[in-house]
Amino acid sequence: MQKFLTKRAIASGISLMILVVLVFFLSRLTGDPTDLYLPIDASLEARENFREIHGLNDPLIVQFGRYLGDLVTLDFGDSIRKSRPALEVVLEAFKWTLALALITIALVSFAAIVLGSLAAFNVGGVFDRIATFFSLIGASAPDFWIAIVAIVLFSVNLGWLPTSGTGTVWHWVLPIAVLFIRPFGLILQVVRGSMITALSSAYVKTARAKGVKPRPVIFVHGLRNGMLPVVTVIGDQAAGMLNGAVVVESIFGFPGVGKLMIDSILQRDFTVVLAAIMVTAFAIFLMNILIDIAYAVLDPRIRY
Amino acid sequence: MTDTSPLPVTPATAEKGRLRRFAGMLLADKPALVAAIFLLVVLLCAVFGPMLLDAVATKQNLRARNAPPFDPSLGWMAFLGADALGRPLLPRIIVAAQNTMMIAAGAVLASMAIGSCLGLIAGYSRGRWAQIIPRLADVIMSFPSLLLAVIVLYMLEPSAANIILVLAITRIPVYLRTARAEVLEIRERMFVQAARVMGASDARIVFRHILPVVLPTLLTIATLDFAFVMLAESSLSFLGIGIQAPEVTWGLMVSQGRPYLTSAWWLSFWPGLAIILTTLSLNLLSNWMRVALDPQQSWRLEIGGKKNG
Amino acid sequence: MRHTTARLMGGVAALVLAAPAWAEGEITIALNEELELVEPCMASQSNIGRVILQNISETLTELDPTNGQLKPRLAESWEEVDADTWRFKLRSGVTFSDGSAFDAADVKHSMERTVSTTISCEIGAKFFGGMKIDVAVVDDTTVEITSDPAQPILPLLMSTLTIVPSETPVEFVQTPVGTGPYVLAEWNAGQNIILTAREGYWGEAPQVTKATYVFRSDDAVRAAMVGTGEADIVPLINQNDATNPATDFSYPNSETTYLRVDNMTAPLNDIRVRKALNLAIDRDAFLGTLIPADATKAVQMVVPTTLGSNPDLQPWPFDPDQAKALVEEARAAGVPVDTEIEMVCRIGNFPNVTEVCEALQQMFADVGLNVKLTMVEVAEWVQLYSKPFAEDRGPRMVMAMHDNNRGDPVFSMYFKYACEGLQSGLCDADLDKMIADATAATGDARGPAWQPVFKKVHEDLVADVFLFHMVGFSRVAEKLDFVPTIATNSELQLAQIKFK
C-alpha cells in the first residue's frame, strides 16, 4: 500500500507539473488581455502602461520562470481583474463548489445505487420502466430549463423557497436539486446495467437456486462486483462538479469556481485560470487515488 | 450407431436465421422498437433535412415573431410555433438535425473509440503504460473544456470539426477510466488465464475476450453522453466557440430560447424535447442491445419479452 | 431600575413595531454582475459606479441628466481663469468617512493618483488620456486646474473624478473612503456588498439607511426577485421581463448601436454601397419586436440630449428599391459589389444582438449585397473593432454599442471618426479639421461647432450605418419612490431613493 501511494503521489505530482506548463503556455496563446481591461477609448500609452504593470511585456520564458519561483511560496500571482491574490480568489469560490459537490454526489450515489439496483432486480417490470424513463429525461434535459422552471414553480408561484442566493439552508435546496438530476440519471443507468450483468452471473443464480433469501445477500454480492464501473462514473461526475457547475452557480447566485473559471477565461485573467485549475486538479487527482484504492478494496483480485 | 452430427447449415440460411432472430427480439421489446423507428426518422432528417427544408427554415418574418404553437392559421409548418425572428420551428428542428447529429455522433464515437482503447491498454498492461495513461486522463479531467475550446479557436479557425475535436478530447477520460476499471477486474478471471495459457496473444485476449464484456457499460455511458455533448456544444457556441448563427443545432436553439423561457416557452421546449427523445431512444436501444447480444441474457427477449421469472 | 424598565419597554416596542420583512430604510439592489473592485478610480465602470458614485465617493461637479447642466457637488463654484486654467472654489466643512477634513490637497492627490502610471485607473484612461493635467493648491478651499492641451469642458471632466483622501496609497484599495453619505460596511466576495449611512455627511441625511447589493447574472431570476420580495431595485432587467407597468420603467441609456463600416476597402469604399446599406434596413420593423419600442432611430453617434447634437438630421428611410438601384449603379461603374462583406457582431453586446444581426444580414441580402455574419466573443471583437487593423483584411462592418453619458461629443468623435481615431473606419482631412475645431471651441460656440460635424458624417460621407439609441429597463418595488433616468446606466444615488 505504502509503495502504491508513493508511486501514485509522485505520478500525480508530475501530472500536476505538466498541467501547469500546458495551461501556462497554451492560455497565453489566446491573446493579449489589455484590450479587455481598458476602456475602448484608452490611449496607446495607457495600454503600454497596463502591460508594464502586469508584466505582460516580458518574454514568455521569463514570465514562466518568475511564475515558477513564486509558486514555491504558493504565490499564484494577483488576479488582473480583482487586484487580489489569485489563490485567495479561487479558494473563496472553491469552498462553495466543494460544499455543493460533496453534498450532491453523496445524495446522488445513495439514491442511484439503491434505485438502480431495485430496477435491475425486476428487469422490464413497472418500476424498471418508470425509473429508466424519468432518469433518462433528467439526464438529457437542459439544466437551465430545470432550474428556471423550478424557480418559477417553487419560488415565484408557490413561495416555498427563495429564488437564489446563499443565506439559509433553504437557499441550498433548489441548487442541489438541480445539480442532482443529471448525474442521478446517468449513474442510475450504469448501476442498473452493472447489476443486471452481476445478477445473472453463475454464482448469484446458484445462491438463488439454493434458496438464499433474495434481497440482502444477493443485493450485496451483486452490488460488490458491479461496483467498479459505477464508482468510476461517480468519480467522473464528481470531477465535473468540482470543476464547477456554471449554470447552477449563475442562476442561483452561488459564487463557485465554475463561473469564476468561465469569466476568467473569457477575460484572459491568466493567474486566476491557472490557480483555479491547480486547485481543482489537486482535488481531482486526490479523488482518483481514492477511487483506485476503492477498486482494490471492492475486488481483492485487483493488483496494481 | 446413429449419426448424431448436426445437419450442415449453409451460410445463407445461417445469416437469415440471425437477422430474423434479431428482428424478432426487437419486436419483442416494444419500447426499443419505437426507439429504433424514431432514430431512423432522425437519421432521415439529418441526411435530407437541409436539402429539402433549408429555405423554409431560414425565412425570417418579424411579424410572426415568437408565434405560439398549435395555431393552424399560420400553416402547418409553424405548427410548433416560430422563433424570435419568426422562423417556423418545425422545419428548423429538422434542418438542425444534421449539424447536431454530426457533432454529437462525431464527438461521442471519437471519444468512445479513443478512450476505450487507451483504457483497455492501461488496464491490461502491467508496465509503465499502466501508470502513464491514467495520468493522461487525470490531466484531461482537470483541463476546463472552455479553455481548451478557446485555445483551439485561437490556434485553428472556428469550424464544426474543431468543436468535435474539443468535445471528443474532454469526454475521453470517462471511457478510459471505465474501461480500465473493468479490465483490471476481468484480467484476473479464469477464462483470461486460460486463454493466456493456451498461447493467445495479448491483442486477441483484449479485443476478443475482454472488450465484449466491457462494451455494454461503455455503450450506456455513450448514449447518455450524446445529450451531454449536444448541450455542451450549445454552451460553447453561446460563448462564441463552435457553431454560430446563422448555422443552427438543437442545443443552440435551446440556448437562444433561454431569455424567453417564461414568455415563449416553445422556443426552448421543442428542440429540448428533440434532444430528450433522441437520448431516450438511444438508451432504450442500447439497453436492448445489451440484453440481445449477451448470450446469458437474450432469453428474456427470445421468450417474447414477457417478464422474467 | 428605571433604566432597565425603559430599555425593556423600548425593546418590546421595537419588536412590536418592527416591519415584517425589511427594517425601515433598508433596501436590496440586485446587480447583474459582481464588482471586481471597489476602487473609486474605477467608478466609470457601470456596476462599480452604481455602488460608489455619489454614495461613497463624490466628485467636484455633477451632471444633471435632465438638462445637461453641471451642478455643484464638492465644488461650490468655478470660473475660467484663462484658456487652459479653471479655478474651483471647494465646499468647506466637509469630512471624509474616516474623520479627516476635505481640502484642496485631497483634490490634488486624487487627480495625480487617477492618472498615475503605477496603477491603471479607468477614469484616468477614459477621460484624462492624452493630456497633461496639473492641480495647483491655492489655499485649503481653492484649486486651479491647468490642462495641456486646453480643455474647454474641464468642469464636465471634473464630474468624473472621484475624490479620495490624500493619504490613500497609489494602489487599488479594498475599503474606499469618501465624502459621500455612505460607508462600505461589508464586502462578502461573491455574495453581497453592504453600504450604511454615516454620521457627519455634509448634506441632507438620506432616507435609505442601509443598502445591500447582491449579484445575479441570470435575467429571469433577477427580475423575479422583486416579486418575491428579495430585492427592491433591479437597475437592469431584460425587456422580455419588463411586463409589469407598476414596477417596470424604461429609460434612455445613452447607448447608440451602429455598424462601423470600413471605408477603406472595396466595395465599402464606394458611397453608393454605403447608402444602399442604410436604405436596405427597415428600422421600424425592429422597434417593438427585437428592439424595445421606446428606442429611437439614431442619426449620429451621440444621443439628442448631448450638447452639439444636430436636430435637423433625418433617419434613413426604408427604400429597398432605391438600395438595389444604387447597388446596380455601383456594379455598372466597376465596383466589386459581389465581394463577401463580413459583418461582425459581438455575443451578448445587447439583448437580442444575434437576432438583430441575423435580420440585418437578411435585409442586406435582399438588396443584392453579399454579407456574411460572424458572431464573436469580446476578446476577438475588440481586435476587430480597434486599430491596428489587419493589412490584408477584406471588407468588414463591426456592430458596436457606444456609450456617451457625459453630455459632450468630444468623448466620442475623435475616436470614431478622426484619421488617427482608434475605432475610426475612415480618413477625411476636412472632417479631422472640423473635429479639431469643435474640440477647441468654448462656451456658446461649442454646440454650433459640433453640429456640422454630425451632418458631414451622416449625410455627406455616409460613413457608418447608425441604428438606434437604446433604452434600458429597470424594476423598482412599488414601496419605493424612485424613477430611473439616463444616469441609471452608470450610477445609482441612494440619496435620491425615497420611500412612499
The overall strand count of chain C is 19
The fraction of residues assigned to DSSP E strands of chain C is 15-25%
| Uncertain residue segments of chain C | 10-21
General shape of chain C: globular
Average predicted local confidence, pLDDT of chain B: 84
Question: Treating each run of at least 4 consecutive H or I residues as one helix, how many helices of chain C?
Answer: 14
| Total strand segments of chain B | 0
Largest sheet of chain B: none
The helicity of chain B comes to over 70%
Distance between the termini of chain B: 40 Å
Greatest interface (CB-CB under 8 A), with counts per chain? A-B, 73 and 62 residues
C-alpha-based Rg of chain C, rounded? 25 Å
The major sheet of chain C is characterized as: 7 strands, mixed
Strand content of chain B: under 5%
Structural class of chain C: alpha+beta
How large, in whole angstroms, is the Cα Rg of chain B? Answer: 24 Å
Q: Roughly how many Å apart are the termini of chain C?
A: 40 Å
- SS-based structural class of chain B? mainly alpha
What do these coordinates show?
The complex is a heterotrimer of chains A (304), B (309) and C (500). In chain A, 76% of the residues lie in helices and 0% in strands. With 304 residues, chain A is mainly alpha-helical. In chain A, helix 8 packs across helix 10 (214-242). In chain B, helix 2 packs across helix 3, helix 2 (30-57) runs antiparallel to helix 10 and helix 8 runs parallel beside helix 9 (250-256). The radius of gyration of chain B is 24 Å and the shape is flat. In chain B, 51% of the residues are buried. The two termini of chain C are 40 Å apart. The longest helix of chain C has 16 residues, at 2-17. Chains in contact: A-B, A-C, B-C. Chain A binds chain C through residues 30-31, 33, 35-43, 45-46, 49-50, 52-53, 81-84, 89, 92-93, 96, 148, 151-152, 155-156, 159, 162-166, 250-253, 255, 259, 266-268, and chain C through 34, 36-37, 39, 44, 117-120, 122, 124-126, 129-130, 171-172, 174, 189-191, 214-218, 220-221, 224-225, 227-228, 230, 377-379, 382-383, 385-386, 411, 415, 422-423.
Give a short synopsis of this structure:
Chain A has 304 residues and is mainly α. Chain A is 76% helix and 0% strand. In chain A, helix 5 (86-121) packs antiparallel against helix 6 (126-140).
Fold topology:
The complex is a heterotrimer of chains A (304), B (309) and C (500).
Chain A: H1 2-27, H2 34-37, H3 44-53, H4 60-72, H5 86-121, H6 126-140, H7 143-157, H8 170-199, H9 202-209, H10 214-242, H11 246-252, H12 257-266, H13 270-298
Helix pairs in contact in A: 1-13, 5-6, 5-8, 5-10, 5-13, 6-8, 7-8, 7-11, 8-10, 10-13, 11-12, 12-13
Chain B: H1 11-28, H2 30-57, H3 89-124, H4 129-142, H5 145-155, H6 160-186, H7 190-197, H8 202-238, H9 250-256, H10 266-293, H11 299-302
Helix pairs in contact in B: 2-3, 2-10, 3-4, 3-6, 3-8, 4-6, 5-6, 6-8, 7-8, 8-9, 8-10, 9-10
Chain C: H1 2-17, E1 26-31, H2 46-52, E2 61-63, E3 70-72, E4 75-82, E5 85-90, H3 104-115, H4 122-127, E6 132-139, E7 142-148, H5 154-157, E8 182-188, E9 192-197, E10 210-215, H6 219-227, E11 233-237, E12 248-261, H7 271-279, H8 283-286, E13 296-297, H9 320-332, E14 341-346, H10 353-366, E15 371-376, H11 378-385, E16 396-403, H12 410-417, H13 429-440, H14 446-460, E17 465-476, E18 480-481, E19 498-499
Parallel strand pairs in C: 1-10, 14-15, 14-16
Antiparallel strand pairs in C: 2-3, 4-5, 5-7, 6-7, 8-9, 9-10, 11-17, 12-16, 12-17, 13-17, 18-19
Helix pairs in contact in C: 7-9, 12-13, 13-14
